[in-house]
Design a protein that fits this description.
Phenylalanine Hydroxylase, binds phenylalanine, iron, binds fe (iii) ion, 291 residues, 9% strand, 12 helices
Length: 291
C-alpha cells in the first residue's frame, strides 16, 4: 500500500527504463480471475452507502466487473477518455522518483500480480486488486485526477527539498485512507479502505479510531501505521476542497515543519475538529472548508 519504499535500485529484468512491464493479461490463470471476482463481489456487498459517490460513479463508468481481472487494453481507453489518465503495470513497488514521474504524467502504476486465494484479507505489497479496484475509480473524477497529478509534481519537489516523509503522510491520509463528509454522512474515498472488506466497515463504524477534520499541516506532522487498521482518519468536505487546500505553495509549510514535532497516531490536539457519528464535519459552503 505504501508506494514510498525502494525495493530495487534499477529496473528489474524485463522492465522498461520507466519500470513498466507488460500486463501480460493472457497469462492470468482461472484461479487469478476468480480471485478478482470474489474480491469484487465481496466489496460490492459492503461499499454501497459506504464508499463516496465519486468512487461508485467511477466504478460504474469503468465497468470493472466484466469477469476476471480487467485487461488494461480495454480499461485504458475508457479512463483516458474521461480524465486523460492511464494505468501501467510495474513489478511491485518502484522508487519514489519513478512513482512521482508516472503520476506527474497521469499514469498510475499498478502491480501486475493478484493476491493468492489464501491471502484475501492481508497482503504486504499492493496487488492489482488494490491498485485497480481501489485507486482507479477515483481517477475518473476530474478533481481527483488533478489532485493526483499535482501530488506527483509535489512529490518531485518534496524529494528535492528533503520533505518526502511529510508529504507522504498527505498521500497516506488522503489517497489511501481518506474519508469524505458528503453531508448525509461520512463516506470512504481512500483506496486502502475501499479495497479492504474489513477496514471499509471499521473506518466508518468502529468506535475506536479518531476521525478528524482535514488539516493539511497537521496531517503532514502525523505518523501512520502500516501494520493494522488506522487509528486516525482525516475527513475532507469534498475533493474540490482538498484540491484547493493543496494548491498553495508548500514551501513555507515545509519550513515550519522542519521545526515541528511529529504527532502520534492516537493524539487528539485541542484544535482538532473531531467528528463523531452523526455529526456533520462541515457546514457546506459550496464545498469549501468552513472556517
Ligand atoms: N502545492 C504543493 C507544493 O507546492 C504541491 C502538491 C499539490 C502536493 C497537491 C500534494 C498535492 O509543493
Ligand atoms: Fe495504494
Amino acid at each position: 500500500m505504501s508506494d514510498f519504499e525502494h525495493v530495487f535500485e534499477k529496473p528489474p529484468e524485463g522492465a522498461a527504463a520507466d519500470w513498466t512491464i507488460s500486463q501480460n493479461w493472457r497469462a492470468y490463470t482461472e484461479v487469478e480471475h476468480d480471485t478478482w471476482d470474489t474480491l469484487y463481489a465481496r466489496q460490492m456487498e459492503i461499499l454501497p452507502g459506504r464508499a463516496s459517490n465519486a468512487f461508485m460513479k467511477g466504478l460504474q463508468a469503468l465497468d470493472l466487473n466484466t469477469g476476471g481481472i480487467p485487461d488494461f487494453a480495454v480499461l485504458n481507453p475508457k479512463l483516458k477518455a474521461l480524465t486523460g489518465w492511464t494505468v501501467v503495470c510495474v513489478p511491485g513497488l518502484v522508487p519514489d522518483d519513478v512513482f512521482f514521474d508516472h503520476l506527474a504524467n497521469r499514469r498510475f502504476p499498478s502491480g501486475q500480480f493478484i493476491r493468492k486465494p489464501d491471502q484475501l484479507d492481508y497482503l504486504q505489497e499492493p496487488d492489482i486488486f488494490h491498485d485497480v479496484f481501489g485507486h482507479v475509480p477515483m481517477l475518473t473524477d476530474p478533481d481527483f485526477a488533478d489532485y493526483m497529478q499535482a501530488y506527483g509534481k509535489g512529490g518531485q519537489r518534496a524529494q528535492s527539498l528533503g520533505m518526502l516523509k511529510n508529504l507522504a503522510r498527505l498521500y497516506w491520509y488522503t489517497v489511501e485512507f481518506g474519508l469524505m463528509d458528503e453531508g448525509d454522512g461520512l463516506r470512504i474515498y481512500g483506496a486502502g479502505i475501499v479495497s479492504s472488506a474489513t477496514e471499509s466497515v471499521f473506518s466508518l463504524e468502529d468506535a475506536s479510531p479518531n476521525r478528524i477534520a482535514f488539516d493539511l499541516e497537521r496531517i503532514m506532522r502525523t505518523d501512520y501505521r502500516i501494520d493494522d487498521f488506522q487509528q486516525v482518519y482525516f475527513v475532507i468536505p469534498s475533493i474540490e476542497a482538498l484540491n484547493d487546500a493543496t494548491l498553495e505553495d508548500f514551501g513555507p509549510i515545509y519550513d515550519r515543519l522542519k521545526g515541528a514535532s511529529d504527532i502520534g497516531i492516537e493524539t487528539i490536539l485541542p484544535y482538532d475538529r473531531v467528528i463523531t457519528q452523526g455529526t456533520q464535519a462541515y457546514a457546506h459552503k459550496g464545498g469549501r472548508f468552513a472556517a
